[in-house]
Task: inverse folding
Protein backbone atom coordinates (compact mmCIF):
# COMPACT_ATOMS: atom_id res chain seq x y z
CA UNK A 1 0.00 0.00 0.00
CA UNK A 2 1.20 3.49 -0.81
CA UNK A 3 2.60 5.61 1.97
CA UNK A 4 1.41 8.85 0.33
CA UNK A 5 -0.33 11.17 2.76
CA UNK A 6 -2.95 13.87 2.46
CA UNK A 7 -1.60 17.39 2.24
CA UNK A 8 -3.19 20.24 4.14
CA UNK A 9 -5.83 21.98 2.06
CA UNK A 10 -5.09 25.66 1.48
CA UNK A 11 -6.81 28.06 3.83
CA UNK A 12 -10.16 29.47 2.74
CA UNK A 13 -10.08 33.11 1.71
CA UNK A 14 -11.91 35.08 4.44
CA UNK A 15 -15.14 36.65 3.20
CA UNK A 16 -15.08 34.89 -0.15
CA UNK A 17 -18.74 33.89 0.27
CA UNK A 18 -19.74 36.78 2.54
CA UNK A 19 -23.45 37.52 2.38
CA UNK A 20 -24.34 34.35 0.50
CA UNK A 21 -26.86 31.76 1.63
CA UNK A 22 -26.19 28.07 0.98
CA UNK A 23 -28.23 24.88 1.26
CA UNK A 24 -26.16 21.69 1.55
CA UNK A 25 -27.80 18.27 1.49
CA UNK A 26 -26.27 15.28 3.24
CA UNK A 27 -24.29 17.61 5.48
CA UNK A 28 -24.35 15.71 8.78
CA UNK A 29 -21.02 14.02 8.12
CA UNK A 30 -18.31 13.32 5.57
CA UNK A 31 -18.07 15.48 2.47
CA UNK A 32 -21.24 17.47 3.19
CA UNK A 33 -20.01 18.42 6.65
CA UNK A 34 -16.61 19.45 5.25
CA UNK A 35 -18.36 21.64 2.66
CA UNK A 36 -20.44 23.30 5.39
CA UNK A 37 -17.27 24.08 7.38
CA UNK A 38 -15.54 25.50 4.29
CA UNK A 39 -18.50 27.68 3.31
CA UNK A 40 -18.97 29.10 6.81
CA UNK A 41 -15.25 29.88 7.07
CA UNK A 42 -15.64 31.77 3.78
CA UNK A 43 -18.49 33.85 5.24
CA UNK A 44 -21.62 32.05 4.00
CA UNK A 45 -24.68 31.25 6.10
CA UNK A 46 -25.62 27.60 5.64
CA UNK A 47 -28.56 25.26 6.06
CA UNK A 48 -27.46 21.66 6.47
CA UNK A 49 -29.83 18.77 5.75
CA UNK A 50 -29.79 15.08 6.62
CA UNK A 51 -32.11 12.30 7.68
CA UNK A 52 -31.01 11.99 11.30
CA UNK A 53 -31.80 15.03 13.49
CA UNK A 54 -29.53 14.13 16.42
CA UNK A 55 -26.46 13.76 14.20
CA UNK A 56 -27.38 16.72 12.03
CA UNK A 57 -28.09 19.13 14.86
CA UNK A 58 -24.79 18.24 16.51
CA UNK A 59 -22.99 18.83 13.22
CA UNK A 60 -24.66 22.23 12.74
CA UNK A 61 -23.71 23.28 16.28
CA UNK A 62 -20.12 22.33 15.54
CA UNK A 63 -20.07 24.33 12.31
CA UNK A 64 -21.71 27.36 13.93
CA UNK A 65 -19.42 27.06 16.94
CA UNK A 66 -16.43 27.68 14.69
CA UNK A 67 -17.78 31.18 14.14
CA UNK A 68 -20.63 31.46 11.65
CA UNK A 69 -24.27 30.80 10.86
CA UNK A 70 -25.43 27.21 10.44
CA UNK A 71 -28.74 25.47 11.09
CA UNK A 72 -29.94 21.92 10.52
CA UNK A 73 -33.15 20.89 8.77
CA UNK A 74 -34.20 17.25 8.72
CA UNK A 75 -34.77 16.21 5.09
CA UNK A 76 -34.85 13.09 2.94
CA UNK A 77 -32.97 13.84 -0.28
CA UNK A 78 -35.45 11.91 -2.41
CA UNK A 79 -38.60 13.53 -0.99
CA UNK A 80 -40.17 16.45 -2.85
CA UNK A 81 -41.92 17.87 0.21
CA UNK A 82 -38.67 17.81 2.19
CA UNK A 83 -36.87 19.78 -0.52
CA UNK A 84 -39.67 22.36 -0.52
CA UNK A 85 -39.38 22.65 3.25
CA UNK A 86 -35.57 22.90 3.22
CA UNK A 87 -35.57 25.68 0.62
CA UNK A 88 -38.30 27.51 2.53
CA UNK A 89 -36.31 27.16 5.76
CA UNK A 90 -33.27 28.68 4.07
CA UNK A 91 -35.25 31.64 2.80
CA UNK A 92 -36.89 32.12 6.18
CA UNK A 93 -33.61 31.91 8.11
CA UNK A 94 -31.45 34.00 5.81
CA UNK A 95 -33.76 35.86 3.44
CA UNK A 96 -32.90 33.96 0.28
CA UNK A 97 -30.81 31.27 -1.42
CA UNK A 98 -27.67 31.75 -3.51
CA UNK A 99 -25.95 28.36 -3.47
CA UNK A 100 -27.15 24.76 -3.56
CA UNK A 101 -24.89 21.75 -3.01
CA UNK A 102 -26.77 18.51 -3.78
CA UNK A 103 -24.40 16.17 -1.99
CA UNK A 104 -26.43 13.38 -0.36
CA UNK A 105 -26.00 9.97 -1.93
CA UNK A 106 -26.21 6.25 -1.29
CA UNK A 107 -24.32 3.28 -2.66
CA UNK A 108 -24.76 -0.48 -2.51
CA UNK A 109 -23.06 -3.42 -4.16
CA UNK A 110 -25.18 -5.83 -6.20
CA UNK A 111 -24.71 -8.19 -9.13
CA UNK A 112 -26.81 -7.24 -12.13
CA UNK A 113 -28.86 -10.45 -12.20
CA UNK A 114 -29.48 -10.18 -8.47
CA UNK A 115 -30.33 -6.48 -8.43
CA UNK A 116 -33.99 -6.00 -7.53
CA UNK A 117 -36.13 -3.33 -9.13
CA UNK A 118 -36.79 -1.99 -5.64
CA UNK A 119 -33.07 -1.58 -4.93
CA UNK A 120 -32.51 0.05 -8.32
CA UNK A 121 -35.30 2.52 -7.61
CA UNK A 122 -34.07 3.24 -4.07
CA UNK A 123 -30.58 4.22 -5.23
CA UNK A 124 -31.91 6.31 -8.11
CA UNK A 125 -34.44 7.95 -5.80
CA UNK A 126 -31.65 9.46 -3.71
CA UNK A 127 -28.88 9.84 -6.28
CA UNK A 128 -30.83 11.11 -9.31
CA UNK A 129 -34.33 12.10 -8.23
CA UNK A 130 -32.84 13.96 -5.25
CA UNK A 131 -30.54 16.20 -7.31
CA UNK A 132 -33.38 16.87 -9.76
CA UNK A 133 -35.67 17.99 -6.93
CA UNK A 134 -32.94 20.13 -5.41
CA UNK A 135 -32.23 21.71 -8.79
CA UNK A 136 -35.92 22.38 -9.39
CA UNK A 137 -36.67 24.04 -6.07
CA UNK A 138 -33.33 25.83 -5.68
CA UNK A 139 -33.69 27.34 -9.15
CA UNK A 140 -37.04 28.86 -8.17
CA UNK A 141 -35.54 30.32 -4.99
CA UNK A 142 -32.43 31.70 -6.70
CA UNK A 143 -34.66 33.31 -9.32
CA UNK A 144 -36.56 35.07 -6.57
CA UNK A 145 -33.29 36.66 -5.50
CA UNK A 146 -32.71 37.96 -9.02
CA UNK A 147 -28.91 37.99 -8.82
CA UNK A 148 -28.02 34.52 -10.12
CA UNK A 149 -26.28 31.82 -8.12
CA UNK A 150 -24.40 28.55 -8.11
CA UNK A 151 -25.78 25.01 -8.10
CA UNK A 152 -23.30 22.21 -7.45
CA UNK A 153 -24.05 18.52 -7.90
CA UNK A 154 -21.79 15.95 -6.25
CA UNK A 155 -21.55 13.03 -8.64
CA UNK A 156 -18.88 10.34 -8.89
CA UNK A 157 -16.13 9.11 -11.17
CA UNK A 158 -18.58 6.39 -12.23
CA UNK A 159 -20.43 9.10 -14.16
CA UNK A 160 -17.64 8.61 -16.72
CA UNK A 161 -16.62 4.96 -16.34
CA UNK A 162 -18.33 1.65 -15.66
CA UNK A 163 -18.31 0.07 -12.22
CA UNK A 164 -18.89 -3.66 -11.89
CA UNK A 165 -21.52 -4.68 -9.32
CA UNK A 166 -22.80 -1.07 -9.18
CA UNK A 167 -25.21 -0.87 -12.11
CA UNK A 168 -27.77 1.24 -10.22
CA UNK A 169 -25.17 3.58 -8.72
CA UNK A 170 -23.47 4.08 -12.10
CA UNK A 171 -26.79 4.81 -13.82
CA UNK A 172 -27.76 7.38 -11.20
CA UNK A 173 -24.46 9.25 -11.24
CA UNK A 174 -24.18 9.33 -15.03
CA UNK A 175 -27.67 10.81 -15.03
CA UNK A 176 -26.47 13.58 -12.72
CA UNK A 177 -23.69 14.49 -15.16
CA UNK A 178 -26.12 15.16 -18.01
CA UNK A 179 -28.65 16.78 -15.68
CA UNK A 180 -25.95 19.35 -14.95
CA UNK A 181 -25.21 19.99 -18.63
CA UNK A 182 -28.88 20.37 -19.59
CA UNK A 183 -29.58 22.72 -16.68
CA UNK A 184 -26.48 24.79 -17.45
CA UNK A 185 -27.72 25.42 -20.99
CA UNK A 186 -31.13 26.48 -19.76
CA UNK A 187 -30.15 28.57 -16.76
CA UNK A 188 -26.98 30.25 -18.02
CA UNK A 189 -28.81 33.30 -19.40
CA UNK A 190 -30.12 33.93 -15.86
CA UNK A 191 -26.59 33.74 -14.42
CA UNK A 192 -27.45 30.57 -12.52
CA UNK A 193 -24.40 28.38 -12.90
CA UNK A 194 -24.72 24.59 -12.66
CA UNK A 195 -21.60 22.43 -12.27
CA UNK A 196 -20.64 18.97 -11.05
CA UNK A 197 -17.89 17.53 -8.88
CA UNK A 198 -17.01 13.91 -9.55
CA UNK A 199 -14.94 12.55 -6.65
CA UNK A 200 -12.92 9.39 -6.70
CA UNK A 201 -12.28 7.41 -3.53
CA UNK A 202 -12.70 9.54 -0.42
CA UNK A 203 -11.82 8.72 3.17
CA UNK A 204 -15.44 8.20 4.27
CA UNK A 205 -17.61 5.37 5.54
CA UNK A 206 -19.11 4.86 2.08
CA UNK A 207 -15.80 3.87 0.48
CA UNK A 208 -14.31 2.00 3.44
CA UNK A 209 -15.72 -1.34 2.23
CA UNK A 210 -13.66 -1.30 -0.97
CA UNK A 211 -10.36 -3.17 -1.14
CA UNK A 212 -7.42 -1.03 0.07
CA UNK A 213 -5.44 -1.66 -3.11
CA UNK A 214 -8.36 -0.33 -5.19
CA UNK A 215 -8.84 2.76 -3.05
CA UNK A 216 -5.20 3.85 -3.40
CA UNK A 217 -4.77 2.84 -7.05
CA UNK A 218 -4.77 6.47 -8.23
CA UNK A 219 -1.45 7.86 -9.48
CA UNK A 220 -1.29 10.08 -6.39
CA UNK A 221 -1.33 6.90 -4.31
CA UNK A 222 -3.99 7.73 -1.73
CA UNK A 223 -7.65 8.53 -1.16
CA UNK A 224 -8.96 12.09 -0.90
CA UNK A 225 -9.95 13.76 2.33
CA UNK A 226 -13.46 15.24 2.55
CA UNK A 227 -11.80 18.65 2.84
CA UNK A 228 -10.24 18.24 -0.60
CA UNK A 229 -13.68 17.73 -2.14
CA UNK A 230 -14.94 20.71 -0.13
CA UNK A 231 -12.20 22.84 -1.68
CA UNK A 232 -13.58 22.06 -5.13
CA UNK A 233 -17.11 22.92 -3.96
CA UNK A 234 -15.90 26.24 -2.55
CA UNK A 235 -14.25 27.06 -5.86
CA UNK A 236 -17.49 26.39 -7.76
CA UNK A 237 -19.55 28.37 -5.24
CA UNK A 238 -17.27 31.39 -5.39
CA UNK A 239 -16.62 34.04 -8.00
CA UNK A 240 -13.35 32.33 -8.86
CA UNK A 241 -15.43 30.09 -11.16
CA UNK A 242 -17.72 32.87 -12.39
CA UNK A 243 -17.30 31.87 -16.06
CA UNK A 244 -17.86 28.17 -15.47
CA UNK A 245 -21.13 26.35 -16.01
CA UNK A 246 -21.89 22.85 -17.23
CA UNK A 247 -18.43 21.79 -16.07
CA UNK A 248 -17.57 18.34 -14.75
CA UNK A 249 -14.70 18.65 -12.27
CA UNK A 250 -13.05 15.30 -11.54
CA UNK A 251 -11.28 15.10 -8.16
CA UNK A 252 -9.86 11.58 -8.11
CA UNK A 253 -6.07 11.75 -7.81
CA UNK A 254 -5.81 10.63 -11.44
CA UNK A 255 -7.77 7.42 -10.90
CA UNK A 256 -9.67 7.79 -14.20
CA UNK A 257 -6.68 9.00 -16.22
CA UNK A 258 -5.97 5.48 -17.43
Result:
Amino acid sequence: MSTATTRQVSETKPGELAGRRALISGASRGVGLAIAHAFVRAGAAVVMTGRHPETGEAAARKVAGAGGQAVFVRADHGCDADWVAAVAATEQAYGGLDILVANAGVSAMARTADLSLEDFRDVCRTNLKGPFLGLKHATAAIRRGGAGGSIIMVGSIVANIGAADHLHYTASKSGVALLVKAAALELGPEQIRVNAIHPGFIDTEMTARFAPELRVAAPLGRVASPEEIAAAALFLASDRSIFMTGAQIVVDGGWTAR
Summary: Residues 40 and 68 are 6 Å apart (CA to CA). The chain has a mean pLDDT of 90. Residues 117-145 form the longest helix (29 residues).
